[in-house]
Amino acid sequence: MAIIPFKDTEQNRDKSSQTMAERGATRECLNFTFEDTPEGRFIETMFAAQGQLEREQNARQVQQKMRARMETGYWVHNAPVGYRYETIRGRGKVLTPDEPLASIVREGIEGYASGRFQTQAEVKRFFDGFPDFPRNKRGELVQQRVTDILTNPIYTGHICSESYGISWLKGHHEPLISMATFDKVQDRRAGVAKLPARNDIGDDFALRGFVCCASCGTPLRSSWSKGRTKSYPYYLCQTKGCDAYGKSIARDKIEGDVEAVIKSLQPTQNAVALAKDLFRRAWDYRHGQAAKLKASVESHIASIDKQIDGLMERLLDTTNQAVMRRYEEKIESLERDKARYHDQMAQMTGQKRKSYAEQLEPALNIVTKPWKLWASGDIGLRRLVLKLAFADRLHYDRKTGPRTAKFAIPFKALGHIQRMHLNNGAQEKTRTSTILRSLAPEASASTNSATWAGG
What is the pTM of this model? Predict the structure, then answer.
């Protein structure tokens, strides 16, 4: 006697009956006698139909319960990387941060948003450096898992589900990142990295992947050329058809020219003092506007709620499928904007405000000392300077040297401040102190805002 389990469908029943008949086997059941008669087959079909009905009803009940729980702000699927389920009395299973994975995921996402990791491949290598990070059955960390982490709204504390029609619903779990960080990640994924990391760059050529050929715009490659007694490092363009194809540039020459560009970013001490004073005044001014900003955010949330209510009324009144889809897309967009404003509100009210010295002072110290970092000779610090100082790759002509560089906004702002200082008399110490005393907070804030926004 053998027990053969199978999914009870009409197709499976016919197949199993045919297979058993070919082998001379008979079907036995504790509470039913199988008969190869019209009446027996009819009763068998009725029992099977009843079983299928019960299965589908159970599935529908499970789906309804899962939808209802998600609509109340609880995640019901497998816990994402960085979270685990914890049973809480009166609330059931709730997502909670799973350390140390939660901190690793947070660092990876924030690193990609800030530019510390220029590509998703760099994020993957960062995750791959932790032995406990989840991998597939073959022990590999695939790129798709990294993409899923970077694009999953669950890490912002919200729940989204296309299956259940839920969009940017505030969840009961603790967020790992802010909405602002999530938006930065999506913006960077839609753009092009300016300094991608490669496994074959090595520690000999800091500019590889960053400096481009001025003739064709392709990143220069690097290599060692073997001489009679030693090897010589070169950069060269290997794009066929380019005027500079195969023409090498000595590493010392090109890196020396880039060093000169970076050295030009080093501001004078007076300009640094003026910049810090301007930023401090702007910092204080922004803190003084916190109450107005909070009221503005609340007004935006109320306006979005009003728009959503209006769209819901229109959605209920229409029967046109195309119009319904447009309304649903608009509601989803508004729900995301609302979630973003709620995130801003939580940051304003739920976090302890950091001081100028804690938050902005360290950043200014890096921006005002790029040459010091470059002169250290450390390959990692040099690449960090390239990422921070330049807004795009640097184009280099083997005859005339580097083309006009596009600097990042902080360095643009610092250069603007230095020019403003020079125009007002850089050699006059008394003039400098007069400028600082004459700056009102409002003027300071507006100057800072215009500089950083317009570059």
Answer: 0.50
